[in-house]
Amino acid sequence: MIRVLKIGGGQDVVHTHALRNLAERVRQGERWVLVHGASAATNALAEQTGQVVQTITGKDGHTSRYTDARMIDIYCAAAASVNQRITAELASYGVSAVGLAGPNVLWASRKTAIRAIRGGRPVVIRDDHSGTLTGLDTRLLYTLLDAGWLPVIAPVAGGEASERLNVDGDLAAALVAQALGAETLIILSNVPGLLRDVQDPASLVRQFLLSDVTRYEPLAQGRMKKKLLAAQRAGAERVILAAAGLESPLDAALVGGGTHIVREAQPVRETCIDVDEVLHAHVLT
């Protein structure tokens, strides 16, 4: 059984607890693939180099980074740095992790004409270096997994003209889950899951069927829209949207924490562990 973990790259996302928890489970013999984001690192590096960070809002309401020729260099450098730090930290926990900086495992088609909204007006952007994911090297991932390695994938893809492309980390994780037939995809971020009221963590939606995603889409704000889209594309038995800021976020998610989007109605607990105890006893203060 293969599971996929996506760790967000936002400013408020805590990596250490998730990586330590992941390492514990890998050392017990579980097979995981890790995909990470790089948004905060990209923003920080852009600020250091005097580059203005811009976002694009599509007509569907999804937002993405505007990645011109200069920004793709910054984005790739930041993604590689995050990838190296994560791989090094996992190694310190006794896990054989291998960093994959994108183009050697992810493939995409460059978006040559992006229809977006800027200043309330429709525009067409033609100089963006972002891509729509088209595939990945499953043979490479299976080879690494079978040899006992934990693949760590950065959200950078290789284009049809051998260019580097910015791709969405949530959708990259969904592609990995779909291609490998993963049983579970966990997406950790700085929010506890899908909320009915973004100001109230207690309004968490605990579980719903994959077939009902469209009913819950109006609740999704900002990046949550991409996470629901990822859930639709993953093809996994369950996709869990959960908080990274717990002492053991994977354990908490797998016993019922976060929002579970499932193919068929099922109990969300993996074991008889008390989910409330796991969720609340380890919350960071």
Task: Compile the SSE list and pairings.
Elements: E1 2-7, H1 16-27, E2 31-36, H2 39-48, E3 55-58, E4 63-65, H3 69-92, E5 97-100, E6 106-110, E7 114-118, E8 121-125, E9 131-136, H4 138-146, E10 150-153, E11 156-158, E12 164-166, H5 169-180, E13 184-189, E14 207-209, H6 213-216, H7 224-234, E15 238-243, H8 249-254, E16 259-262, H9 275-281
Parallel strand pairs: 1-2, 1-13, 2-10, 5-10, 13-15, 14-16
Antiparallel strand pairs: 3-4, 3-7, 6-9, 7-8, 11-12, 15-16
Helix pairs in contact: 2-3, 5-7
What does this structure look like?
33% of the residues lie in helices and 26% in strands. With 285 residues, the protein is of the alpha/beta class. It has one domain: 3-Layer(aba) Sandwich (Carbamate kinase). The strands form four sheets. It has an eight-stranded mixed beta sheet with strand order 5-10-2-1-13-15-16-14, sandwiched between helices. The chain is globular.
Helix tally equals 9
Give me the count of strands: 16
Q: Give the second-level CATH assignment, the architecture.
A: 3-Layer(aba) Sandwich
Number of domains: 1
CATH fold label: Carbamate kinase
Q: Distance between the terminal alpha carbons, to the nearest Å?
A: 34 Å
- What would you call the structural class? alpha/beta
Percent in strands? 25-35%
What ranges have pLDDT less than 50 throughout 5 or more consecutive residues? 270-285
Could you give a short account of the major beta sheet? 8 strands, mixed
CATH C-level name: Alpha Beta
Q: Kindly report the average pLDDT value.
A: 89
Helix content: 25-40%
Shape, principal axes of CA atoms? globular
Radius of gyration over all CA atoms, rounded = 18 Å
Give, in order, the helices and strands.
EHEHEEHEEEEEHEEEHEEHHEHEH
